[in-house]
Amino acid sequence: MTKVPLPLAPGTAEHPCLALANSIVTLPGGQRVDELNSPESATAWLVMHALAPADTGLLAYCQLRLTDLRANLRNALESRTEGVAPNADSLSGINRALTAVPSAALLRYDPDEGLLRVPSHPTTQLVDHAMAQIAEDAAALLTGTDAHRIAQCASAPCDRFMVRTHARRQWCSERCGARQRANRAYARKRD
Question: Which string of b and e fits 142-175 if b means at least 16 CB within 10 Å?
Fold first, then answer.
C-alpha cells in the first residue's frame, strides 16, 4: 500500500515553523503520523525543507532536540489560536533556539554555483542553526501582521496549524473540509 502524502496546510510552505509543528498529525481513526520519528526521518525532514545539506546525518540527540522544539512551537501556536498565555517552558525553549547560534547562514563561494548562503557547522551546531531559523520564523509569525490568521484545523481529529487564506477558512485542506461536511450531513440525516 502506497502512502498518500497529506496536502500542505495553508502557510506551511512559507513558514518552516508551521511545517515543523505539522510534522506530527492525527489522522482519521486516531492514527498519529510523525515525520520526525527517527534520526533518519528527522534528517530527511531538515534536508527537504532546505535547513540542512543533503549529506547531513543527525544523531538521536539532535532528533530529540528537534522534536522538543516542535512541542514548544505547537504549544505556542495552540495558545495563540485559543487566545491564552503559552506555557512559560515552551517560550523558554523557543527563546533558547533563537539565541543558540547566530541565525544568519554564512556566505560561501562554490565554483559550480557561485555565491550562496549555507550553514557550515558540525552536525549538532547545524541542528542549532536550523532550529534558530525555525524559531525566528515562529517569532515573526506569532508577533507579525499574520498572527491573527493563525488557526488550527477545525476537522477532528486533525490537529494541524495553518495561516488562514480568508476569514472563513476552518480547515487545513479540502480533504478535512469534505470530511467535516460529510460528518455534518450524516448527523443531520440521523436526526
Answer: beeeeeebbbbbebeebbbbbbbeeeebebbbee
Residue 3 pLDDT grade (very low, low, confident, very high; cuts 50, 70, 90): low
Question: What is the architecture of the domain spanning 16-190?
Answer: Orthogonal Bundle (1.10)
Nearest to 25, CA basis, from 40, 14, 12: 12
* pLDDT for the residue numbered 108: 82
Return the bridge partners of 26, or none: 32
| Segment 10-63, tens digit of pLDDT | 999 999 999 999 999 988 778 899 999 999 999 999 999 999 988 888 999 999
Beta strands in 129-186 (DSSP E): 150-152, 161-163
Element (H, E) at 26: strand 24-26
Domain boundaries, the chain: 16-190
Amino acid at residue number 95: N
**Backbone angles phi and psi of 26, in degrees to 5:** -100, 125
CB 160 within 8 A of CB 9: yes
Q: Which residues contact 170 (CB under 8 A, 6 or more apart)?
A: 151, 153, 154, 155, 177, 180
Confidence of residue 155 (pLDDT cuts 50, 70, 90): confident
Cα separation, 77 vs 131, whole angstroms: 16
